[in-house]
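Handout, page 2. Input:
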Amino acid sequence: MFLKSSTASQTVRQSASDTSRGTPSPQDNGSNGALDNLPEWNLGDLYSGLDAPELARDIESAASGCSVFEDTWKGELEKAAKAGGEKGLGAALRQYEALEELMGRIMSFAGLTYFTDTSDPARAKFYGDIQSRITDISSRLLFFTLELNRIEDSVIEAAISNDPQTRHYAPWLIDLRKDRPFQLEDRIEQLFHEKSLTGHGAWNRLFDETMSSLRFDVNGKTQSLEPTLNMLQSADGTERKASAMALSKTFGENIRTFTLITNTLAKDKEISDRWRGFADIADSRHLANRVEREVVDALADAVTQAYPRLSHRYYAMKAKWLGMDVMDFWDRNAPLPETPQALISWDQARETVLSAYRDFDPEMSNIAARFFDGKWIDAPVRPGKAPGAFAHPTVPSAHPYVLLNYMGKPRDVMTLAHELGHGVHQVLAGKQGALMAHTPLTLAETASVFGEMLTFRALLNATRDVKERKAMLAQKVEDMINTVVRQIAFYQFERKVHAARREGELTAQQIGELWMSVQSESLGPAIRISPAYESFWTYIPHFIHSPFYVYAYAFGDCLVNSLYAVYQNAEDGFQEKYFEMLRAGGTKHHSELLAPFNLDASDPAFWSRGLSMIEGLIDELEALDA
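Output:
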């Protein structure tokens, strides 16, 4: 996720399906060496270590800088807005941005160090201590945005017009003022800020550490979450079932903890929403994403109406291919018999993605190559390592980092393409500076999904074998269903949970019933959902870390489907428009960014066009099967 704060942020890509990247079986790794020598990131570009003197120096510099900033500017911002120059608002904004950048660097290092091994007590303590310290330090800056939003529009507009330094930050100022209706009195905001560490922050950490510590017994072998989830992609049906039962058993044994976390965080959000005056359960997310509720509603409605044409239809076809009348839930991501089973080496994955990026534009490939050459990627699976995958933007003065759990599966190559798309976006947007590089989640998924599409199309175009083509198309359709259909089902599940929580605390059974209802509706009659599945809501990190995050995946996928169609039919110049969109970071609304491509997300037909691409791939699969 991208966050407008100095806390560690990450773009996590895990819950697109019930399969996450896991560890290879020893015999696979040993038999062909495909997963040898996977890269590990070098965090030295941020700080040389937990006890680095430059880290201690920067923490003290941040503390003194925030104190001086508050003493200098608190109560003076309206006067500064009218002054201009070095005593003007632009000067204050420049200093504020520098402090946000400094604290962002510190928290990025702490977060990435922790995610490298969440089971290490020393790293966990370091992360917790840094969070606490930065929370205390940054409380001295709280006044700034609150005081800015109390200044009359005419004064801000005049400052933007008359002062070049302030004009530079105009997009950020205009964006900030959208928060005005939901802003509370200064001391309440300070209380919310300081208690976040012992409130939702603590529950987030409990979830992470609990999930990392879980172990699953599959046919007598004890293993962590990643390899167990990965077995749901096994070609062996008995292995898929065994992993599903192991997941269900361990999730069930820990259900009280996850139910308490979910209840607590849903109530915490309800309290915050009520105090701030948000009308709808998801309005705070929509505001953070700078997207209108009506646009998200149109997306959700379009996807829900398309369930029969997409997921229901595809899974019925897949059941027939697998020789089943109905698939069990653990068969949903089973490979087709035509799917190649050989592991894909890291070098092959690298060349596949960079080549696809290069065919689109050499600049895209060159930026992505820096992630490999600079040790900005951490690929191996290790005990305690954060599950899934993410791209962390860190701060503009440094560079992004990518975390993977690379297994050598075709889906892992797509994940690499996805996260490198984020990385390219983050590098390009970084030129906007710490305050304006942030991209709302709905558009943050654009470059990642576009990178996946480029890679998929390059591979498909090079495939001549009909069976391999069918397997590739089927896998892409499944990924798109996981990204669009299941993410909207997840969004509907969250809405049901948060709405029900407002009526009182929920039992694990009640949450499980809500989960099963949305899963049944979205997956359709070709998937048998047994009671063992009712606890699978527990491991989805987005529900905990970023409520209602999940619709951003569907937004991004449908948007990219439409954008890719424009690219296929475009004359020269598409690439430059595309890069300009990425370079804009958070300086423009989605309507402005899409206008050069003649796309409009507020038009309900826009979403239908995006969904039609998925339907077209299913049509092609059906034709191959005829």
